[in-house]
Write a structure and sequence with these properties.
The protein is an alpha+beta fold and about 180 residues long. The protein is built from 3 helices and 12 strands. It has a 9-stranded antiparallel beta sheet with strand order 1-9-10-11-12-7-6-5-4, covered by helices on one side.
């Protein structure tokens, strides 16, 4: 082996070592996820209903055609089972097998939960509607951006908070 080749190998190994050291240092500075566990309980079947004006969709049982009838301006995202509007007000996810609504991501106050919670509401308003039996998750000690989760397993409602206000609601239920 030539002397120049060994110098190049040492330089490459030093660069790799520096990159690994930088990666380790940056990973130690990320805020840890804080989970506050509460007593959760199963939600009522009606809680998986989302209200759109005078229309309703049941997460876990409504069909693709029912959703398309309520949201005629929506479109599929690529060749997926996700239906949405632009700009994004909602994302409706359907099962691949039988096209049943299994998840609704809501970003607009025009769509509410069965208990009339919408985006823009604060924690106290959500607690008045759903109670205090939830799990709360946040990044580190951030008290203004967090998630609260009602329900059990894959049958749940997640309220995502930014600056102490609900900015997204996720209603998810396994199909019946």
């Amino acid at each position: 082996m030539r002397k120049n080749d060994s110098k190049e190998i040492i330089i490459v190994l030093l660069i790799i070592g520096l990159v690994l050291a930088a990666g380790l240092l940056s990973s130690k500075h990320q805020a840890e996820m804080t989970v506050i566990t509460g007593k959760t309980k199963a939600l009522d079947a009606a809680d998986f209903t989302i209200k759109i004006g005078n229309d309703n969709l049941e997460v876990g049982s409504s069909s693709w055609s029912a959703a398309a009838g309520i949201f005629p301006g929506g479109q599929t995202l690529g060749m997926s089972t996700v239906y949405s509007t632009a700009p994004e007000e909602y994302l409706l996810t359907f099962t691949e097998e039988d096209n049943v609504l299994c998840k609704a991501d809501i970003y607009t106050s025009a769509i509410s939960t069965y208990r009339d919670v919408t985006t823009g509401m604060n924690l106290e308003q959500v607690q008045q509607a759903y109670g205090t039996n939830y799990v709360q998750m946040s990044q580190g000690d951030d008290q203004s951006n967090f998630d609260i989760i009602y329900g059990t397993g894959n049958n749940r409602i997640v309220f995502n908070f930014k600056n102490q206000k609900v900015w997204r609601i996720v209603v998810q239920q396994e199909s019946n």
